[in-house]
Every structure is written in C-alpha cells, then in structure tokens.
Amino acid sequence: MTFDPAGGQRRTGGDRKRDDAAMPTTSPFPGDGGAAGSPNRIDRLLRERRDFFASPSPSPDAMDTDGAEPASASSAGAFASDGFQSPGSASPANMEDTGGASGGHAARPPLSGHRSGFRRLGLRGMKQRLLVVANRLPVSANRRGEDQWSLEISAGGLVSALLGVKDVDAKWIGWAGVNVPDEVGQRALTKALAEKRCIPVFLDEEIVHQYYNGYCNNILWPLFHYLGLPQEDRLATTRNFESQFDAYKRANQMFADVVYQHYQEGDVIWCHDYHLMFLPKCLKDHDINMKVGWFLHTPFPSSEIYRTLPSRLELLRSVLCADLVGFHTYDYARHFVSACTRILGLEGTPEGVEDQGRLTRVAAFPIGIDSDRFKRALELSAVKRHINELTHRFAGRKVMLGVDRLDMIKGIPQKILAFEKFLEENPDWNDKVVLLQIAVPTRTDVPECKSILFVLPLLCIYLMRISKAYKPSA
Length: 474
Hints:
This protein is of the alpha/beta class and 474 residues long. The protein has helices spanning 13-22, 39-54, 157-161, 183-194, 205-224, 241-262, 279-286, 303-306, 312-319, 330-343, 371-377, 381-393, 412-425, 447-451, 456-469; strands at residues 130-136, 139-145, 148-153, 170-175, 198-201, 268-272, 291-295, 324-327, 347-349, 352-355, 358-364, 398-405, 433-440. A hairpin with a 2-residue loop joins β9 (347-349) and β10. α5 packs across α6 (241-262), α6 packs across α7 and α13 runs parallel beside α15. Residues 1-118 are annotated as: Disordered. Keywords: Glycosyltransferase, Transferase. In the N-terminal section; belongs to the glycosyltransferase 20 family.
C-alpha cells in the first residue's frame, strides 16, 4: 500500500517551517533518509555495523556476560543491570556499566559496533524491584458478584514476551480490561489481583473509547505500520485528533498516578508499547530520579512517516524522558533516532539521543520465545493426536500456514491473492501445496479493525474461486 504523506493531516506553513528548521544537516546513522554526515564517521559506523552482523552469535553460556552483543539481549533482560542510571547520574562520565561514554567518547555504542559490551545480566540476578507498566494486565477479569471476581491468565503477545519477569520481584500495573465504576467492585478486584502480583488502573468507558479505541488503535497503530493516518470521515465515531490525544494524555497520567502510589525508592519502572508513550514524562515530572525505561513492541516508522503525526513533537519529547528506550530491531531504533534529529533537531549518537547534555540511551533488544514451553507441548497427548490428524489430512502436500489476528495490517487478503497468483504461475504445484489460514478476531471496537470484518465475504469468494480453479485431481 502506498502512503500519502499528507495522510489527511492539515499542516500549516508554520508547521513546515518549524520542521524544516529543526532538520539537522548531518546524521550519525547511515540510510536514515537525512543529509549525509561526516564521511569518516559514516564510514566508521558502516564498518562497525558490518562487523557486528558478521560476528557469530554468542553461545548460551555467554549470554549473561558483559561481552554479550546488544542484538542477543532479550527485552526481558534489558534493565537487569546495576548500571541502569537515574537521570541524576545519567551523564556521559558515569555510565560505564551500561555502555556509556567516558570523557566525551562513545565507549560502548549499543546501536552499532562489534563487541559493544552492553551489559546483559539475567533477570534472576536483579536486586531492584521491577514495576512493569502496560496497557493491559496479564490476566482477564470476570465479575461473579458484587465483590467476587474470577481471574484467568491471558495469552497475549506481551504476556508471552515477559514470562521471564516472573523470576524476579516484579509487579504488573495495567488496565484490567473491564469497567468497574463502583468502589466495592474496585476494592474486590484490587484484592484479587494482588494475589497475582498485579495492580489495576481503573479507566472509565469514555477514556477507553477515546484513548484505546481512538488514539492508540485508530491512529498510532496504523501509522506505526505504515498505513497512514485515518481520514476525517473515519474519525467520526471517535471524534477527532485533539479529543483523542487529550484522552491519551489523561489515561497515561492515570497510569502514572497508580505508579506513584506503589513506587519505592530504587524501583525500576518498565513502560511498554505505544499506549504509554506519554508515561515517561509523567513519571519524570513527579520524580526526576525514577529509573524509567520504555520499550516499543511494534515497528517505529521512518521519520518521513512519523512526521505526519500531529502530536509528533510532544510524544518524542516524552519518550526521551526515559533513561533507556528499547526496540526490537536496529532499524526501528535507527528510525527513532532519525526522527529525534530531523524533527526535534537533537543530536543523534551511536548510543542514542543527546539533549542539552542529557543522554537517552537507545538500543535494540530482539525478543525471543519460550522454546521449552513448545517442547513440553509436543509431549502432550492432545497435541500428538492433533499432529497425527494434520499429517493424515495433508499427506504428500506442502502446507503454507498463516496464523494472524484479523487486523488490517496483517495483509490476509493480499496473502490469499498471492497464493492464487502462485498457483496460476506454477500449475505443477496444484496438487502439492495447500494454504491453511487461521484468523483470530481482535479489537472489534476499533473502527479500522471492525471494517475488515466486512471483507470476510470477499475473502470467502476468493477462497471458493481458488478451490474451484485449482481443485486437486485426487
């Protein structure tokens, strides 16, 4: 899908002048779309990056050493370091443990370079208490009475990603996914969640509609996946940009208020995802010495795409209040630094972003999976029985498997059409391959996600057409 930079956004001449004035003439990162920087510096960074990706992956035994590469660090271990500094001490002269600069030199750049030395200690060795702050709690709550609640562990992507957090002294702060307007219900739910080391944030229906369904999933989610901003007619059900962004900031402040109530000196606060981009600022405004990290679980778009967001400046400034900003890949981290240099006019370095002498560290922490969990599942009788059924059903054929949420960014219609094109161009594969697509409905209250439900009849037509045209001979 092509992207129209206008994206339905009304930009004034003043906006363009401010953005152009903020665009630096040099950039520390190759390929960020900005003007070329110093040839020597660019060559060095390119050489370091090439060496980094050419180096062998560390062995499991080496994963908990100071020499571990940033690309081998999991997001769950990002903050497990006694070198994670509070803003009061986060100066280039005293960040040695986390790869900071000394004497003005970038000693351990986490974004590029071979053997960068970003400290990756396992969460098991962490002495500080960890406060995980995310939009949703890792449990689903169902009310069974005035003061009775039942809780079930959720199976979301973020929950799966943070399974390692259970090995440390951690508490999870987030929305329980239900509206609880009465104090009796709130007290009962808070008590029930405490047994799961969870702390609820109570959001009313209007805030959820504007903040979650509106700004988070109708604006940020599509934009961060390069789908562009919604047009005015698609914003009708969730009002407009201004009201949604106001609700977004109010919701983030409500999360911050709950953090204040449970924060103890020395705690590490780990904020998650695009829902809470405004949270680092709220926390630092309350206590500059809080240790705050923010991790994004989606792509971060190129600066050309991100700059179409009306609230681009405010969100970037807020995220930069964190001490450490993490992304899944080097490219996402590079896009973020590029946005800060081109839109805010700040200095990007191999370590992150510097603003008036304060360094916000930016690094990539590729996420992993719990492989042991999958191995254990293979030993279950129900799983073995299902494997035998699938083996018999698709015997002799290659299986193309897709497991996706029914979301506009997943490209399910395009996948089906691509499969049809493949069969058209490769008739010999007619009896040898099958496409198995599993689609899970999600975010049915979000206008963009709801609209894809109307595409389902069309998908059925596509599938019937393919099945009829390329019906197996046997």
